[in-house]
């Protein structure tokens, strides 16, 4: 079996990994900033789903989205950030897009949102395997 090494990556590979990190971060960083600016609304939405300690859950979501988004952008601890965001995304899908427990017009929208979250988690897991690429803090830190 032949495996790619970090040193065998082309400039195109590094560019595509950077673009992938930026596109994935674009899902999280603005959402986290929105939760900061609309904290009470976020807490209210979490509470409306029947979840306990909504203030703590809102704060945890902000840390995950802002922290994870920034980590992806700069390529810092990318594997760890990807795993954490993948877990966060699957949990959020199950808690907030549970289309199987709904009826009416929202079922299709929630099913689409659930599926989107799973696809994002898949991309994050793929990134966790590929690593951040040469254009990242991880590369600078490890001599990539």
What number of domains? 1
Order of helices and strands: HHHHHH
Structural class based on helices, strands and sheet pairing = mainly alpha
The outline comes out as globular
Main beta sheet, described?
A: none
Total strands: 0
Alpha-carbon distance between the two ends: 22 Å
Short description:
The protein is 75% helix and 0% strand. By secondary structure, the protein is mainly α.
Structural account:
- The chain has one domain.
- Helices cover 75% and strands 0% of the residues.
- It contains six helices and no strands.
- Helix 1 (11-37) packs across helix 5, helix 2 (39-48) packs across helix 3 and helix 4 (78-96) packs antiparallel against helix 5 (106-130).
How would you describe this structure in keywords?
144 residues, globular, mainly alpha, disordered N terminus
Topology:
Elements: H1 11-37, H2 39-48, H3 54-74, H4 78-96, H5 106-130, H6 137-142
Helix pairs in contact: 1-2, 1-3, 1-5, 2-3, 3-4, 4-5
